Amino acid sequence: xxxxxxxxxxxxxxxxxxxxxxxxxxxxATMTFDEKLDVADLLDAMGVDIIEAGFPIASEGDFEAVTxxxxxxxxxxxxxxxxxxxADIDRAxxxxxxxxxxxxxxxxxxxxxxLAHQMRKSEAEVLEIITATVTRARNLxxxxxxxxxxxxxxxIDYLCQCVDAAxxxxxxxxxxxxxxxxxxxxxxxxxFRAVRxxxxxxxxxxxxxxCHNDLGLAVANSLAALDAGARQIECTIxxxxxxxxxxxxxxxxxxxxxxxxxxxxxxxxxxxxxxRASKLVSAxxxxxxxxxxxxxxxxxxxxxSGIHQDGMLKHQQTYEIMTPESVGVAKTSLVMGKHSGRNAxxxxxxxxxxxxxxxxxxxAFNRFKxxxxxxxxxxxxxxxxxxxxxxxxxxxxxxxxxxxxVAGTSGPQSATLTLDIDGxxxxxxxxxxxxxxxxxxxxxKLVPHTARLxxxxxxxxxxxxxxxAEVSVRLSEDxxxxxxxxxxxxxxxxxxxxxxxxxxKLMLKRQKTAKAEQAV
Length: 520
Ligand code: KIV
Ligand code: ZN
Known about the structure:
Layout: H1 3-7, E1 14-17, H2 19-23, H3 33-46, E2 50-54, H4 60-72, E3 77-83, H5 86-96, E4 102-109, H6 112-119, H7 123-140, E5 143-149, H8 156-168, E6 173-178, H9 185-198, E7 206-211, H10 218-227, E8 232-235, H11 249-258, H12 274-285, H13 306-314, E9 334-336, H14 342-351, H15 358-374, E10 378-379, H16 380-393, E11 398-406, E12 413-421, E13 424-432, H17 435-446, E14 452-460, E15 469-477, E16 480-488, H18 491-519
The structure holds 3-methyl-2-oxobutanoic acid and zinc ion.
3-methyl-2-oxobutanoic acid is lined by residues 22, 107, 147, 149, 175, 177, 179, 210, 212.
């Protein structure tokens, strides 16, 4: 019996984070190898129980990342995903065998629509596949999770037969995903209740939720299943994931903590690290967090209206059900200016949840000094934007070195740009229809591509005309979607950084595809 199996009778909910697998799978959220390690380290430190580190058969890069994460993670179980195919299972087993606790997570579709159109297999054939693949996985590792893909659109009788086969073959966790985000909370809970009641050996496995957010119900569905006996929740930081995303880890954890009266459970998550995790994932995926996102959105603890502000001043709990500090959000404060020294900056970074080695610290400090020279008041948000950009771009092959732009009423607007590409600096000049167009045309001259600009978005990090601009860019090329972000007091420099960051990700994706094609 595993530790988790014992816990099922109790109130402990196992948090299974799939940011690096289901999260990374969504269009535009590609992470580099080093970024994945940074995210895994943070998840481990935060107390996530299981880190799904990737899909080892998908590419050499995925295999290497899962292997490296398995080797370095100290506390969490490391899981690798596998389809119900022998080669997938062996590859996942190979990647997670280095972990102190390794898990193979294998899945197969069970719904009639998937069986008929995707799998082209009969129910009987799929049952045989479940027995064979779970048995194979159990011969490689002790800890095997089996998922019924599209469980919520599967007939309950057949679903029970599948779960029964998986448990008999040795699955220790049974995951019943709402793959298409279709269920309502009552339906989702009823499915768990029925399966747990009807499958004879259901008490031998932990039951797990995995909800997608197509109808905005992913968190509600996950929590509803707890009452029906589920004790593992699969989720992602910021709710990133396929289509509308997965259940958001920070929302699940804070709902359980804040409403312990209605949800009598507990997780092992250190909640003061949630804001940091959100920022890191947003920085490395280049996915902005929506302003009004629960728990980690920048407005989540902001009180704008007079009535609310008045109430807050009289008593914090009038309009706040949890404190910003409990999720790691420090109160906005004027931090430092150009006279602030290394010690003050180091202390501030620590306060904001960043830990750096000496080289990374020096780099961040120099960037802070450069910003403080240009901007009178430097706020916490400025420092976060600046440091997150350094983290996000630390491993990029291309960097903006210099940009001069001619703008104004008497055109043509033009840009002279110097890029560092793999250590070589190159400069070009281009005209455009406006300064942003000229800047992007210059980048295009240096990095020819056929990608289409799908989104160009600018927002100010703080208030004032000297505020840093944070720019998001989304590009698409041959079905690949990538995003990039940049931050600077100069909107055009931030735009160039964002465009170049997106192109760097695109190159990475092209390489991944090329390697995968070579491997076939
Ligand atoms: O949504 C889903 O069904 C999945 C499975 C692979 C668990 O992500
Ligand atoms: Zn999923």
